[in-house]
Amino acid sequence: MKRKSSSREEWAAQIAALDAAPVRKEPITVDRIVTTALALVETEGFAALTMRRVAAALGTGPASLYAHVRNKAELDDLLIGTLSRNVSLPTPHAGRWRAQFADVCGQLRDQFLRYPGIAQAALAAAPANLDTLRITEGLLAILLKGGVAPRPAAWTIDAALLYVSAYTVEASLRRHPDRDEDSRVVDRDEILARLRMLPVSRFPHTVEHADELNSGSGHERFEFALQLMLKGL
Amino acid sequence: MKRKSSSREEWAAQIAALDAAPVRKEPITVDRIVTTALALVETEGFAALTMRRVAAALGTGPASLYAHVRNKAELDDLLIGTLSRNVSLPTPHAGRWRAQFADVCGQLRDQFLRYPGIAQAALAAAPANLDTLRITEGLLAILLKGGVAPRPAAWTIDAALLYVSAYTVEASLRRHPDRDEDSRVVDRDEILARLRMLPVSRFPHTVEHADELNSGSGHERFEFALQLMLKGL
DNA sequence: TCTACGGACGAACAGTGTTCGTGTCAACTG
DNA sequence: CAGTTGACACGAACACTGTTCGTCCGTAGA
How far is Cα A42 from Cα A110, in angstroms, rounded to an integer? Predict the structure, then answer.
């Protein structure tokens, strides 16, 4: 009888599988995990990137992911690796090294901004990943071709990548805060108003140049900071 | 009888209080919370900063903290505010503006490094806090005294503060990782060895200048990046 | 003396990363 | 072709996290 009921269960399972069959057994792979995770980050931000949410989007439980990914940290690494693979490196041109360097950084910035908050993972995974090393290699090639000595080149790359991460983290937090609730979201005008509200006795320069402190639309500040580093070489 | 048992309980409580009395009722204040939290971060890192751990160190439960602090985010804000209050601002001197600027950034860096990982909170709390605004004011005064125009001054300050946070976050992660277990901890020599192991075909410059990429003891890279920004002005 | 009131706090909720043990399906082996 | 093996999928659980609710209690004011 056990056999009988078992076969009946099988029968029921087969019937149920009639619907699910086409989608049914698509196996979990690292690629599917990464793709799903990126989509999640893109729409809901890095804070929403959870093993459980990724697993749920794949129609399974969190434990299933750990056969393909050691850690959430490793998943983060994979994500920024994928992002890094999306930036294209130019063949170094001696006369345009500044523009080329800034362009690569800009690509990285845009990748990070597309997936809000993911730069937090970039700050942690900086040295380990092979794909980020590819970018470092490309930037090094550009600077060396431009005639920069190896050591300042290396240190400049380090500083620039650090800045890109910090810039994108802050930009993401400002436009995609965890809680939209009460007062956390402060737009430009609000910030300006608050700066003007400061006591002039203690914050004379801040009040006087509040508009300058608050200025910089788009990526003007980003470009400025980068050019600051590159002009200094 | 209820009264009787109540008074007896009181009596027992008073007896029990004989020992606990001297330490007993020290009330919870924001200052005590902040002090405890800072001590915790100093010894165990920012990842260990938990409402529960802070509460436990104060001999109570986590709910007690929420009478004095709205959020963990607000606690983070308070912490970096306290740290910011520790940096001393010089009276601006026109001839020494670069050194003064670098010195203030160095103070901030040291504060952040003393409490490993706390700079993560600084990246989030940048604009809101009043104490960080004090530093911005000080830096602005230094640059203006040095003859820098308001707008580049403001943007440079922004870039520098961002860089300080990123630098300290990365430095903290490198020396105080979450897990000391298997392979996450990679010291200088290990990194150098791995860089040399790369395929020369794909990473020619990285392999050739591996030692330069890995160089920079102490805060040499930090000073370099800062001077890079300041020379560019 | 009685009454409010504000801080302290136990318990609980929803959610996190991660692990253990079991199931189940596929492919290689005899 | 039958049988075993091994890798993968996954349910359940553990030890945490931040945060809230309702209750308690000690002190200040009427």
Answer: 12
> Which tokens sit at B31?
């200052």
The model's pTM is 0.88
Q: Is B187 on the interface with A (CB under 8 A)?
A: no
CB atoms within 10 A of CB A182: 7
Contact B207, A154 (CB under 8 A): no
- In single-letter form, the type of residue at position B131 comes to D
In this structure, what token pair is assigned to residue B216?
């920079």
Residue among B207, B187, B209, B189 nearest B198 (CA): B207
Reference A205, options B107, B145, B96, B102; nearest CA is B145
What is the maximum alpha-carbon separation in chain B? 90
Q: Are A124 and A76 in contact (CB under 8 A)?
A: yes
Nearest residue (CA) to C1' of D21: B63
Distance A44 CA to D22 C1' (A): 34
The answer to whether A41 and A118 are in contact (CB under 8 A) is yes
What local confidence, expressed as pLDDT, does residue A5 receive? 42
Give the position of tokens 């804070």.
A47
Given CB atoms, is A121 within the 8 Å cutoff of chain B? no
Residue A73: which nucleotide is closest by CA–C1'?
Answer: C17
* A155 and B CB contact within 8 Å: yes
Q: Which residues of A touch B224 (CB under 8 A)?
A: 152, 155, 159
| Contacts of residue A100, Cβ cutoff 8 Å, sequence gap at least 6 | A90, A92, A93, A142
The string of pLDDT tens digits covering residues A52-104 is 999 999 999 999 999 999 999 999 999 999 999 999 999 999 999 999 999 99
From the list A27, B216, B98, B134, the residue with the least C-alpha distance to B224 is B216
Indicate whether A127 pLDDT > 80: no
pLDDT per position as a tens digit, A7-47: 444 444 444 444 444 444 578 899 999 999 999 999 999 99
Contacts of B58 (CB under 8 A, 6+ apart): B28, B32, B33, B36, B64, B65
